[in-house]
Amino acid sequence: MESKEQHLIRHYLILFTLFLFLAGCAHQIDTKTTLYDDWKPRLAAQKTWQAQGKLAFISPDERQSANLNWQQDEKQNNLVLTTFIGTRILSLKQTRTGAVLDYDDKTYTDTNAALLLKRLTGFDLPVDNADNWLKGTLMSQTLKVDELGRAQQVIWYDNSNKKWQITYSNYKQQGGFWVPGNVTLKHQQIKIKIQLYNWQFN
Q1: Which residues are registered as beta bridge partners of 49?
Q2: Banded model confidence at residue 74, pLDDT cuts 50, 70, 90
């Protein structure tokens, strides 16, 4: 027969288990976002965001990879690449008046962020238009979408008239939007693969 002490212990264990279950349910409810009915135009109009993930730059001569932290607000666009142990590789800040690149312990400026990045690092990345292509909100007659209206593939020309083929996959719901988890850009023999773990919107 169960003693009074054992009965109390069992009672507390049941209550504790119930508390953990309810806390887990509450956490799931809190973190889940409701998808906007008009998520696509809302996402295109959303100018303040942050994306974190990994980037791989692949060309016939080299292959480089880095952690990626990309932030944008109404005033600036800031891209930071770090090694997988957290050492900063570069920081590129773009404003309406120009671009500032911190790279190899030096600071460089230019009016064109993409050209500045390419000239000093060899990275051919269309950073000037990231707000559209990274979110998958480009408008083009070549755009292919899935049954939910999410971008799958598009042929796009950047500010330097370079032709890019961009593909999107692994979509996730975040902040009320569908956002891509994987973005791949191809230009001639250059391929840029971006894996995005997290999106944040303000």
Answers
A1: 72, 201
A2: confident
DSSP 142: T
**76 phi and psi angles, rounded to 5 deg:** -155, 165
Residues in the chain: 202
pLDDT surpassing 60 at residue 68:
yes
pLDDT in tens, 99-108: 999 999 999 9
Query: What is the reported pTM?
Result: 0.80
List Cβ neighbours of 184 (8 Å cut-off, separation of 6 or more). 166, 167, 191, 192, 193, 194
Asked if 156 contacts 164 with a C-beta cutoff of 8 angstroms, the reply is: yes
| Cα 196 → chain centroid | 4
Contacts of 154 (CB under 8 A, 6+ apart): 138, 140, 142, 143, 144, 165, 166
